[in-house]
Design goal:
Blueprint lengths: L1 E2 L9 E5 L4 E8 L2 E6 L14 E6 L9 H10 L5 E6 L2 E2 L2 E2 L5 H12 L7 E3 L7 H10 L4 E6 L12 E5 L1 E13 L6 E8 L4 E9 L3 H13 L16 E2 L5 E7 L9 E5 L2
Parallel strand pairs: 1-11, 6-9, 14-17
Antiparallel strand pairs: 2-10, 3-4, 3-5, 5-6, 7-8, 10-11, 12-13, 12-15, 12-16, 13-14, 16-17
């Protein structure tokens, strides 16, 4: 799926809520089911089985997907995982990839039925334009929407016929330290929020500041530097800690407990 800033317009697009989980494909042959992740890993033992393409999620008490809870559910509560199916590629010896999306989804819906207790659910599309659905998701702090061209065949990898529009929000956090990203080496701010009982770690954000504002940020980090570690974790190495005094504005993906796709956008006065 290609990321876009706004959902596409037109009668040939269908729109679904973007579920926040693990993308997987389930293949069934001679009664045996095998489950593969998007990167090709065999996770057969971890999911319910079906013949479909979908997203495995865990839902919170409001029915929204909870990405943070999914990892522990795989290990401890596999029965709590729901597979939202959105496409059907092969059925009863028939290859369906060249069928249109609406034809494949009609077959998928008929295959799954309407059992509300099933661990495999059909990912419904929504009537109306994509902009209205996107705004509704943003208002409810959901991750975003996926828009798909109704007449398109199935294509693996990135495609202009499957587009994702993510909902972002801005929040304030206090900086407790910095570290270098292991993949890129870019500087990241370690952030926390105060829930009234003390500071709680919220995650890391890349620093999207430039010019005088970036110089001010780095100067404040140096002034507030301390050897005191705000958090103790074996996963945090080469961290430069600071006193929790510097407050920043952060743009991040909506609908998650821990920060994802986050960037520091400004300093709070």
């Amino acid at each position: 799926m290609l990321p876009v800033d706004q959902p596409p317009e037109g009668k040939h697009w269908i729109h679904e809520i973007k579920h926040d989980g693990y993308r997987c494909q389930v293949l069934v042959e001679r009664g045996e089911a095998r489950v593969f992740t998007r990167n090709g890993y065999d996770w057969t033992e971890r999911y319910p089985s079906a013949i479909l393409d979908g997203e495995a999620v865990v839902q919170d008490h409001n029915g929204a997907s909870d990405f943070e809870a999914l990892g522990s559910a795989l290990r401890q509560r596999p029965h709590s995982i729901i597979l939202y199916a959105f496409d059907l590629l092969h059925l009863d010896g028939k290859e369906l990839r060249q069928k249109t999306l609406v034809e494949r989804r009609a077959s998928l819906k008929g295959l799954l039925g309407t059992d509300e207790q099933s661990r495999i659910q059909f990912s419904d599309e929504f009537d109306g334009d994509g902009a209205a659905l996107f705004q509704a998701c943003a208002d409810r702090a959901l991750e975003g929407i996926v828009s798909k061209h109704a007449l398109s065949p199935y294509r693996s990898g990135h495609s202009k016929t499957w587009l994702k529009t993510k909902c972002f929000t801005e929040s304030t956090f206090v900086v407790i330290g910095t570290e270098r990203d292991r993949k890129t080496g870019a500087l990241r701010a370690l952030l926390a929020h105060n829930d009234g009982t003390g500071l709680n770690y919220a995650g890391a954000a890349f620093i999207a500041l430039g010019g005088e504002e970036r110089a001010q940020f780095l100067g404040e980090l140096e002034r507030l530097a301390t050897s005191w570690a705000a958090l103790k974790s074996s996963r945090m190495q080469d961290v430069k800690w600071c006193h929790p005094k510097l407050v920043v504005e952060v743009k991040h993906l909506a609908g998650t407990k821990m920060l994802r796709h986050a960037t520091v956008r400004g300093l709070r006065e």
